[in-house]
Write a structure and sequence with these properties.
The protein has 230 residues and is mainly alpha-helical. The protein has 8 helices and no strands. Helix 5 runs antiparallel to helix 8, helix 6 runs antiparallel to helix 7 and helix 7 packs antiparallel against helix 8.
Amino acid sequence: MRIFNTTQTLGEIVAIMPKASEVFKAYQIDFCCGGNRSLEAAIKEQNLDEQEILSKLDAVYEATKKLKNTVDFRNLSSSELIDYILNTHHSFAKQIVPSISEMTTKILRVHGSHHEELFQVHKLFHGLKTELEQHFIKEEEILFPLMKQYDTEPSKELFDKIKKTMKETEDEHDGAGDILKELRKITKDYVVPDDGCATYELAYKQLQELESDLFEHIHLENNILFKRFD
């Protein structure tokens, strides 16, 4: 018996089973910014095998059932979910972004003359860095406090403020998602050239770690937290 079907949205599937994100990442299916699309639309868009995708999702579901202490983010209050996002995803990004900044600058200086794509990698990443810094401030100082206040003191005025700021935040998510996709394209899925040094390898590894974490982060906001204020 099928657990999932192609009429469900990508965001809904990952909300039900977070480990579905691993299947979607393997096929480069955008489940965060593109979470409102149906699985059917994503499969057709990339000309994928529908039965293969559904079988893999069902297999992950069966494996997940055996795990203990798995968190269902849908059952957390908005305040609890916000704290999780801050302590897990904001914290991780703030630790890894400075490291990537330093390394992309270093490999550009050392390898840029032979790998001109590194100029674009450096430019795109530092554009993303600036966006994330501003985005985190907006969430931490404006959006999240409003949402936490709404948890205890709901009002139409608060709701309207949240909706306005949330729309800006969703647009920023789309911008970050586009940069991540472009970085993956330019680096040919983060393949390090034969003459790449250890720093080159580590820079690409950490870029992929940041990408993975941001996808999870954006999913939790777009497809779970923000849905509560639709």
